[in-house]
Structures are given as structure tokens and as C-alpha cells.
Amino acid sequence: MTTAWFHCFAGTAGDMTLGALIDAGADPVAVMEIVGRLGIDDYALTFEPVLRCGVAATHAIVVVNDHEHEHEHEHEHGHEHAPDHRPYRAIRDLVLAADLPTRVRDRVLATFDALAEVEGAMHRMPALDVEFHEVGSVDAIIDIVGACAALEVLGVDRIVCSPIALGRGSVHAAHGELPNPAPAVTALLARRNAPAFGIDTRKEIATPTGVALMTALADSFQPMPAMHLSAVGYGAGTADTPGRPNVVQVVIGNEAARTTTPGNGQPVRLLEVNLDDATGEVVAHTIAALLSAGAHDAWASPIVMKKGRPAHTVHALCDPAVSEAVAAVLIAESGSLGVRGTTLERWPQQRSESTVQIEDHVIRVKLSAGRVKVEHDDAAAAALALGWPLRAVLSAAEALGWALEAPAQ
């Protein structure tokens, strides 16, 4: 199984992701042939060898012919905001009409679906009606489709990402001055419970395009998995920042087949508290809060404490990088005077996320060996809008999921 691990130690952007994959060996001619199927004219896609803090990297450049200069939509990474914009419905139609490889199409739509979902929530409108400004410009579309095409050219089956670096202060966008990281960035990270960390810079080092690619496509967020390395690449932003290479690193390699037998697993932290004075509603709220704080999983077990009192143990399983934040939520929500923890290992099985469509309603599905799992919230929203029974939507979405070409084959 071919895996791509993205190291976003200096942030991430769409053009940097594309540049990193080209630098790792994706044939630029093959990538541009796939991108060319979109039917978008008046642009040129080029790749330039550069140095960033002495690190050799590739800079992906989209030049739009009806403007006097290169679109520069992502600040530190070389893009100012382009004036053109498109509704997501139009972008989706554009992608569906193109003769893209199945896995490229699914990854592109998953990325734009994630962006439309968070933008729709922020602007209180349906996802398909969202108008993308910076992300709807030609160069951003080419960055996203190009990155997904490069993954296909390299034969990448599984995507893994490190925690993502973020800046501070504020950034200028189509809607005015916004906090840095931008609201879309934080919403995308929260949507996946993805790990991130701040560094001392006022530049926009993590852009919505780059973060959408990672949060929509990554199977997991973790240190580099055990694999036999075959290639490494660096994708550059425009700025050459002193003391910190302005690059995204991608490492390509082959992972051994995953099994449930003991070996080098993924480290996780199990945090627990015992509660004998909490109602069922409080326990349920605590579990929801733990998941929102970044826990891989959270649950409660019935127990009997001293003097025969019925009680619960609330458990949270999380990445060690977010264990402090998860423990703080566990204490605050449960009212416990302390928390205990154990370091464990886990062996998550290979899975991927794609989307199906029922009557214009986009529904996420998780695909794994011998199983299709429909995202309940998406199915419930579609059932409510269509007036269908929930079980009918779940059944239809599962059937469509089985018909998909699994991304990791």
C-alpha cells in the first residue's frame, strides 16, 4: 500500500501540496493532462525549482491569462486574493462533467465538500449555495485538482498528515480582516478533530485550500508511519522565510499490510475518571465534549463504587499530542477532582472517506475492508429535507457506497 505522509511543520497551502508531490516524482505532464480535462481555459500551470532556507523545493505556479499578474491568493505561500468567485454548485458541476479518474474525482469533491460544509455553516446557507471567493478562483481550483491528480499519478492509496502549524494575528480576505488562522481553517480542523499548533508568526501559513486537502483526504493525523521510503518532496510557498523553510514536506513509501496482531502500533492515551454523582445527561454531554476536544473515541461504563453506589467510568482515547486538552475537558465537564491515564497502542484498520449523492444531497461514507459506514448526521439531514424515512436514506447511501471504487486498492 503506497502512503503519502505530509509534514506540515511550516503550515500548508494548496500550491505547496501540489509542488511537494511534483517534487516527489509525480510526472508534471501526466498531472497537467488530468487537470486539462476540467475544460478551464486561459491559465498556465508551471513548476519552478527553488530554494527555501537552503532546502531545494518545487514551486507550483498558476498564471491566469486574463490578469496582469500571477494570482496570489495565499499570503505567505505566494497568493493574494483573486477577484473571481464561483458557487460550489458550479464547481461541483464542473468536476462531475470532467472525465477525471474516479479516485481523483472523489478526492476533489471530498475537498470541496469539506470547504462548502464549513463555509455554509459560517454563512448559514446550504453547502451547494456557498459562493467561494479565494477558493473559487481559477488558481485555487487548479491547485486542488492538481494535487489530487498528482496523488493519482504517484499511485497513493493512503494519506497521513502531521499536526498542522498555524500563525497568529489577522489576515486580509474577501470579507475583510479576519483572525489568523482564518475561520474556515479552524472550522476544517475542528470538523476532523485534527491536531494543530501555533507558531510565532503573523503570516497566514495555513490556508483554507491546504487545510481542506489535508482534513478531507487524510486517513489519520499522526507521526510518520512505519514504511519503506521511496521518495521525498518539498513544495514551496513564494516567501523565503528566514530561519524556517517555507515548505510542505511529503514522504512517499510502502506500508506493510495492517493487522491486529501486536507490533508497532499507534501510541494513544487512555484517560479516565470515576463519577458517582453525575446524571446520565451530564455523562452524555461529557462524552460529546471529549469528542469535540479531539478524542479518537469516548464512552462510559457502569460500575459500582464504595457503599454500593452505582456510578460510571468515563473514558477518553486520544492522541498523546492532545491529551492535555482532552484531560482538561474531562475534568471540567465531569467535575472530577482528578484524572488517571494510561499509554496504550492501537492498530487502526485502513479506511477512506468518500461521498455519495441522493437527490442533490451530499452524504459522506466511510469505506473499509468489507464495510460501508454512512455518516449518520448527513443521512439524517437528507432524510429530513426529502421527507424520507431515515432507514431509506441509510440503505440507499450504503448501496451507493458499495458501488464506489475503493480508493485504497
Automatic annotation (TrEMBL):
Entry-linked InterPro entries: Ni_insertion
Gene3D superfamilies, alphabetized: Transcriptional regulatory protein pf0864 domain like (3.30.70.1380)
Keyword entries, A-Z: Nickel
NCBIfam families: nickel pincer cofactor biosynthesis protein LarC
Protein name in the entry: Unannotated protein
Taxon lineage: unclassified sequences, metagenomes, ecological metagenomes
